[in-house]
Give the backbone structure.
Amino acid sequence: MAMYQAEEFVEGGYDGSAYQPQFDAQFDQPTYQYVYGGSADTDEMRTTQARVTMPDIVQNFLVYFDRQVAEKNVSEIQNVYELSFNKLSERFYKNDPWPEVEHIEQIVGHDGVFLILYKELYFRHIYARQQHLSGMPTLDQRFESYYNYCDLFNYILSAEEPVELELPNQWLWDIIDEFIYQFQSFCQYRCKLKNKPEEEIHTLRSNPMVWNVHSVLNVLHSLVEKSKMNEQLRAQEADENPDEVAGDFGHRPLYKMLGYFSLVGLLRLHSLLGDYHEAIHTLRHVQMNRKTLSAVVPGCQVTTYYYVGFAYLMMRRYQEAIQTFCNILLYVQRTKQLLQMKSVQYETMSKQSDQMYGLLAVTLGLCPQRIDESVHSQLREKMGERLELLAKGDEKQFEETFSYACPKFLSPVPPNYDGPRVNLNKVWYMQIAPLIHHKHSHLAHHRVAVSILPGTLSTPAEAFHDRSSSSEANCRHTKLPEIVHNPTSSKVGCSDGE
């Protein structure tokens, strides 16, 4: 049972103070409630070094970046964001953070919006390079990044008229994607109590509203509501003009895309919380057999299908899960070269694709059926003997494959800081237990050898019929909202322009 109600974050509308302990009148001047840790001497040395060693090319880049944002030159912002920033990061800041915002302010001036955007990139770089940045992100940096998102979303959502800001779709998707990732990372971090210093425990206990699940849900629902995204999608379902219901905010690309990406974010967040019915319900107006807004950002499209397929799997709607995984994996196969050249997130999408092959293998082990020949060929190549073990119901292999392929679940509530100092990070096992029990119940009734043939996972016909009927009965014990698929096409519906 869910520990929150999604509706309470919709009816009340956006409330910036709901997820911020204290906040000054100026959106760019948060009043922090926590005490910074670390050594003042070390911090001073780092900031001095950053100021002294900032190369001229980096300073020129920042001035140019600021100007493009001010002039709303979206195509050039995209080039700077996707290419220049990453190249400079690789060249100068591969094992170091970018200069802190105080030094950037000396170069670009007091441009509050640009400084917020810069800090979003600054913290994202730290999270992305944390393996190379010893001890980062620190607890202070996790808090600072949260408050920077407060600044950004307050700026966008609290305005009485649409803000004069335009960003490329890829960056807008990355903002939502990173926002949820950092929340997920924080939840996992606070659950690892073993060997955590008492000072950090005190800081976490004293700041329960920082990275609170209600705060994150509030932001995502508010972006959806501000853009009237569900109203626009309902209009599309009825073959009407969505612009007629979009309103002043929903007409703007910034709000429209953030609204749609927030729906995908809600799909992901509800899945991480184990509320799969609500996850599917979030996309109730999205017709996945049509070209949707997710198609403009490949990473969003892959993420959508990953979490939709996973939610179907966890609800035991196995045939729909298999169809979902096969559709997107076939799309990734056909567009691999194009994605490698054009998408800055190809590495992430490639890993997510490998995870979907694992989830597909698990689902086929639970509900054997014929799949697309090319997808099946790739599945056998990637899984090898593990596919045979899954088909035979090997419990250890189920656990290993599921733990690799599933998302990193999280608990929406803080741990008991006064309890034993242990790491509470195996939430995934509670999610797989019902699937293993379901698999055992099938094997108890149908002790048959499972053979794998080209393009299919099959058993003898009679046993296959019995198992499929039993699976379907369990899959459909309740009426759930549908996400529309095209049963006659092996293509991903939202990519018919490929």
